Amino acid sequence: MKLWISALKNNHIPQRVLVSHVRTLCCFISNHNTNLLSNRTRRFSNRTNFTAKQFLNANKSCRELSTSFSKETAIQNILLEENKLRTLEMIPKMRSIVTNEKVSVGAAVLVPLCTVKGVPSVLFTLRSSRLRSHQGEVSFPGGMCDSTDRDVIHTALRETEEELGILSSSVDVWGPLKPIPDRRNTMTVVAVLGNVGEVDPAKLKLSPREVAAVFPLSFSHLLDPARQRYTTMKRRHDNYSYTMPVWLGGLHRVWGLTAIMLDQVLVAMATDWYRTVLRSSWRQRR
What pTM value is reported for the model? Predict the structure, then answer.
């Protein structure tokens, strides 16, 4: 089995064709499992020193390989137009976590989808120590909405150009995600999905007043369950508690509001490969 797969890969068979062949073989083995003990199969097994258990193990291995190749292919294609359309269909179906509908949108950020040396990734920033709040925390480029901004997309693009030097005209805007309440529940923040294309983080023109550093995390990293953890937080002033994801294993820990936004991104873009751990509850104080 492994030799057969290796031969296909070494002969430069396209991945989508390889996945198709793997699935075909899995179906073939699965459909013949019930006949493994027939006389004909028994004679075949005797000649090739294969047992029914070995066939079943091969079937299991084949299915695992098929799943692995399918996920790898999905990640490689995650920024393509087909997945963009699928993502935009998914966003309206996502649940809202806003607990106070009277709270207005106060800020917006851009989630910079990109490729780094051809690898589909998400670009993060590390907030400068010069800022008044959340110094040194992982975030996305963005900021408060100005009265001159047309909408949240304009805010996100303007702030990204100011912080990273990425021209607004060069961003393929996908669209905004669901609003997220801030820590005090006094306003909401909207994350805007946008593809900034191929990026070399070392060549970006950072604003030292706002950004200390930038770093990418690949979708393979973000969708690896071994990198994902979760934590539970509680707001004292209104008894609102929530469980949110945390991503480890990179240069910096991704948590807080940025992790909640990233959770939204993966639910929308990789719904087949990501399961949210985001939970919330609210109880009125007596």
Answer: 0.75
